[in-house]
Amino acid sequence: MSAHSSEPVAPVEAPEPPYYVAVFTVVRTPSQDGYGETDARMEELVKGIPGYLGMDHAQTPGGLGITVGYFRDADALTAWRTHAEHREAQERGRAEWYESYTLHVAKVERSHTFVRPPAPQGPTAG
Fold this sequence. Notes:
Its EC number is 1.14.-.-. This protein has helices spanning 35-46, 74-81, 84-97; strands spanning 19-28, 52-59, 64-71, 98-108. By secondary structure, it is an alpha+beta fold.
């Protein structure tokens, strides 16, 4: 999934537990022909999965990419994992785009969100 989305930079707000996460950590190959288009298509498709809650992305300067997908239940995660176009993208990823990857799936039982309140606006000098 893309780390170059046009969406605002903010983590997905913590859904009410329980829910599931899929944590995909990847190192990509130098050849990324077609990756951007496929990545954008996967982001479009996953949003149509009933029970999809959102996604976070991060990329280190050294090239490690991390995507965390949030799903309401195991059925939603299974629907995404077995989606035909997603399966094709997975195969192409293993064949062309991924040097290595790890996938972790977990049921989240506790989570919370913190957002810094806006700084108070003081009087302006006239």
